[in-house]
C-alpha cells in the first residue's frame, strides 16, 4: 500500500496572535470547550502521554485527562505500571491532544508529579463500580498468560466488594503534569500551519511566540 499520496489540505480555521489568551490555561479552556461541543470528535479528553526512563527509551500511550487547572493537567494510573516506573526515573513528560477532526492539536511539555492522596481518593470514589474493581484486578504492564485470569480475578473482586465499597488501592493514583511549554497548532492550507508556543518564564508568567510551521 502506497501511503505517500495520503494528504489533506486544512482549511477549517486560523489562529492569530491577537486572539490568543494571556496564558495557556485560558487558551486551553477555549479550545477544550470547542472540542467538547464538536459532534465529530470522540473523547476530547484523550491525550497521548510520552515518557522516557533513565535509559532514554521513549514510550507513548493514550490516557485520559481527568482534571486541569492553573497547576497542571491530571491523569490517573497504576503506580506500578511501566509509565509510572519511567516517571519515577525521569519526571519530564509530554502530552498531546490530537483533535484531528478540528485540524488542531495541543502539545504540553513539563514535569509529572503525583497528586495528593485526597485528590486520588476523591476521583477513585467517583468512578463506576466496575472501574474501581478493575483497578484492583490489573497489575498493569505485567505479562499474563490469558484473559481468563483477568476475568477470574474480576469475579473474585466482585464477590469481595459485593457491598459496593471498594477502597483505593495503595498502588493507584494520579499524576499532575506541570507545564513548562504549551503549543497550540492549527492546520492551515498549503501546510503553512499556525503554531503558537507559550513558555513559562523564570520570573513568573508566560512568553508567547509564533513558530514557523
From TrEMBL:
The record's section on Pfam families has:
PNP_phzG_C, PNPOx_N
Look up the record and name the cofactor or cofactors this protein needs: FMN
* GO-annotated biological processes: pyridoxine biosynthetic process
- What is its EC class? oxidoreductase
Details of cofactor binding: Binds 1 FMN per subunit.
Tree of life domain: Bacteria
- One annotated GO molecular function: pyridoxamine phosphate oxidase activity
Question: Which keywords has UniProt assigned to this entry?
Answer: Flavoprotein, FMN, Oxidoreductase, Pyridoxine biosynthesis
Domain Pyridoxamine 5'-phosphate oxidase N-terminal, residue spans: 41-158
**Annotated substrate binding sites:** 7-10, 66, 123, 127, 131, 191-193
Q: Coiled-coil segments, which residues? A: none
E.C. number(s) listed in UniProt: 1.4.3.5
Which residues belong to any copy of the Pyridoxine 5'-phosphate oxidase dimerisation C-terminal domain?
A: 172-213
Where is FMN bound in this sequence? 61-66, 76-77, 83, 105, 140-141, 185, 195
The record, for InterPro entries, names: Pyridox_Oxase, Pyridox_Oxase_CS, Pyridox_Oxase_N, Pyridoxamine_oxidase_dimer_C, Split_barrel_FMN-bd
Pathway entry: Cofactor metabolism
Q: How does it assemble?
A: Homodimer.
Similarity annotation: Belongs to the pyridoxamine 5'-phosphate oxidase family.
Name-wise, this protein is Pyridoxamine 5'-phosphate oxidase
Source species, please? Terrimicrobium sacchariphilum
Amino acid at each position: 500500500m502506497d501511503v505517500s499520496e495520503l494528504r489533506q489540505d486544512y482549511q477549517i480555521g486560523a489562529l492569530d496572535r491577537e486572539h490568543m489568551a494571556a496564558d495557556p490555561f485560558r487558551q486551553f479552556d477555549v479550545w477544550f470547550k470547542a472540542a467538547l461541543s464538536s459532534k465529530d470528535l470522540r473523547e476530547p479528553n484523550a491525550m497521548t502521554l510520552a515518557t522516557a526512563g533513565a535509559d532514554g527509551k521513549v514510550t507513548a500511550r493514550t490516557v485520559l485527562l481527568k482534571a486541569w487547572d492553573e497547576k497542571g493537567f491530571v491523569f490517573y494510573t497504576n503506580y506500578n505500571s511501566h509509565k509510572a516506573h519511567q516517571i519515577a526515573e525521569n519526571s519530564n513528560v509530554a502530552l498531546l491532544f490530537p483533535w484531528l477532526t478540528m485540524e488542531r492539536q495541543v502539545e504540553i511539555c513539563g514535569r509529572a508529579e503525583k497528586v495528593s492522596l485526597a485528590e486520588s481518593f476523591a476521583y477513585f470514589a467517583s468512578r463506576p463500580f466496575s472501574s474501581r474493581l478493575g483497578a484492583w484486578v490489573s497489575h498493569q504492564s505485567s505479562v499474563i498468560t490469558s484473559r481468563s485470569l483477568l476475568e477470574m480475578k474480576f469475579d473474585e473482586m466482585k464477590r469481595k466488594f459485593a457491598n459496593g465499597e471498594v477502597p483505593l488501592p495503595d498502588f493507584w493514583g494520579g499524576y499532575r503534569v506541570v507545564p513548562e511549554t504549551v503549543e497550540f497548532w492549527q492546520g492551515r492550507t498549503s501546510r503553512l500551519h499556525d503554531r503558537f508556543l507559550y513558555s513559562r518564564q523564570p520570573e513568573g508568567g508566560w512568553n508567547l511566540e509564533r513558530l514557523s510551521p
